[in-house]
Amino acid sequence: MESLGFFAILFSAVFTNNILLTNYLGMCSFLGCSRELKTSFGLGMAVIFVMAATSVLNWLVYTYVLVPLDLDYLRFIVFIVVIAAFTQLVEMIIERVSEALYLSLGLFLPLIAVNCAILGASLFMVIRQYTFWQTFGYGLGAGVGWGLAILAMAGIRQRLAQRSRVPAGLEGPGIALIIAGTMALAFMGFNGMVSLN
Amino acid sequence: MNAAKNWKLFKENLGSQNPVFVQVLGICSTLAVTNVVKNTVVMCLGLIFVTALSNLLVSLLRGVIPARVRMMAEVLIIACLVIIVDIYLKAFNPDISRQLGPYVGLIITNCIVMGHAEAVALTQPPATAFVDGLAAGIGYSYVLLAIACVRELLGTGGIWGFNVLGGAWVNWAIMVMAPGGFFVLAVFIWIVKGCWLKPARKEKA
Fold it and tell me: Of A51, A128, B29, B54, which is the most buried if we count CB atoms within 10 A?
C-alpha cells in the first residue's frame, strides 16, 4: 500500500473504487434523499466534509491511542463516537456562524452520523493500513465520489419523474437501484487505471 | 393476547413490513455480502444476533436511558454486540472475517438495527421487542439468501462452492461484481411489489 500516493488514492477513491457503486456504502441515504438535486447537493457537500475530517481524526485516534494501548478491538465504538461527536460539534458551530450554511448543510449532519459510508471509510482505512496522507486522500476521494454519485442520481431521477412512465412495481427504490446498477456499470469503465485492492 | 400480538409482529416483519424490500433499509450490506452464499449466511446470523439482542437490551433499559442521549446509548449497545460478533468471527472463522472485511463492523450503522431500536424497543416490553428484533433479522436474512443464491449461481455456476450448473455453463462475471447486485435487488423488489403486494394495494383502493 505504501506505493500509492495522495493523488492516486484520491483519484481511485472517486472513480475506480467509488465507495457507493463498488462497496455499496451509504445506500440508505442515497436512495432516500436523491429525489431532488438541491437536497442531494447539500447532502453531498456535507458528506465530503465529514468523511474527509472524520477519517483523518479516526486515523489519529487509531494510530496514537488505540494501537499503543492495545485497544484495537474497541475501534468500532471509538470510531462511531468520534463521528457522532464531530457531526454534533460541527452542527452547533455552523448554527452559530451562519444561518444560510446551516440551512443548506447543517440539517444533514445528524443524518450523516449514521451513514454507513462514513464509518466504512474509517474501517477501510484500518484494514488497508493507510498512512496519514493516504487516509486523507481516501477520505476526501470517497466523499467526492459519493457526492458525485448522488448528484448524478438526483439529476436522473428528477428527469425521470417529469417525463417517464415507470412500471408500477419499480417505482421508488426499484428504479433507483436499476439506475445505480447502470451507473456502476459505467464506472467499471474506469477499472484497471488504479486499483486500491 | 400478548402471544398473538407478538406473532402478528413476527409475520409483519417477514412480509408486509419486510425491512429490505418494503422499507428499503440496510441495503448496503444486502448488496455487498450477497455475492457468495457462505458469507451471506454468516452475515445474516450476525445480524439476527445483533438485532434481537439490541432490541432486548434497549427495551430492558428503556426506563433508565435519558431521552436526550438515547441515540448514543443505542449506538453503544449495538456497537458492543457487534464487537462480540467480530471477535467471535476472528477467532473461529478468520477466512470469512477477512472476506467480510468492514461489513461486520458496518452492522452498527445498519439502519435496520437502529430503526427497530428506535421504533419498537423504546416503547415495547422486552419480550415483544426481542421477537420484533428476531423477526426483522430473519426477514432481512431470507431476502439476502435469495439474492445470494441467484448471484452465486449465475456468477460462478455453483452454490456454497459446489459446482451445480456443470462445465458448459459460462459464468456471468457481472453477477458477482457491483452492478449485478443492484440489478438483482431491483428485479427482486419489482417481482415482490408486482405480484405479492398488489392485492394489498387493491384492497386499499
Answer: A51
Q: Domain for residue A124, yes or no?
A: yes
How far apart are alpha carbons B58 and B38 in whole angstroms? 30
Indicate whether this complex's ipTM tops 0.90. Answer: no
Residue B186 with chain A: CB contacts under 8 Å: 170, 174-175, 177-178, 181
- At A1, is the pLDDT very low, low, confident or very high (cuts 50, 70, 90)? very low
| Count of the separate structural domains present in chain B | 1
Quickly count: other Cβ atoms within 10 Å of residue B126's Cβ. 16
B193 touches chain A (CB under 8 A): yes
* pLDDT score recorded for residue B204: 45
Low-confidence ranges of chain B (pLDDT < 50): 1, 203-205
Domain region containing A186: 9-190
Let me know if residue A196 belongs to a domain.
no
Is A100 domain-assigned? Answer: yes
The one-letter amino acid code at A141 reads G
Mean of the pLDDT values across residues A28-53? Answer: 81
Is some CB atom of chain A closer than 8 A to the CB atom of B167?
no
Cβ of A168 and B31 within 8 Å? no
Please judge whether B179 and A119 are an interchain contact, meaning their C-beta atoms are less than 8 angstroms apart.
no
pTM: 0.80
Is residue B55 situated within a structural domain? yes
Q: Does A73 touch chain B (CB under 8 A)?
A: yes
CA distance B67 to B57: 16
Query: How confident is the model over B51-99, as pLDDT tens digits?
Result: 889 888 888 888 888 877 777 788 888 888 888 888 888 888 888 888 7
Cβ–Cβ gap B177/A77 under 8 Å: no
> Do the domain assignments include residue B47?
yes
Contacts with B102 from chain A: Cβ below 8 Å? 120, 123-124, 127
Number of structural domains in chain A: 1
Q: How far is CA A168 from CA A155, A179, B7, B55, in A?
A: 21, 16, 31, 35
Map B66-82 to HEC letters. CHHHHHHHHHHHHHHHH
All cell numbers assigned to B204: 386499499
Q: Domain containing B26: what range?
A: 19-204
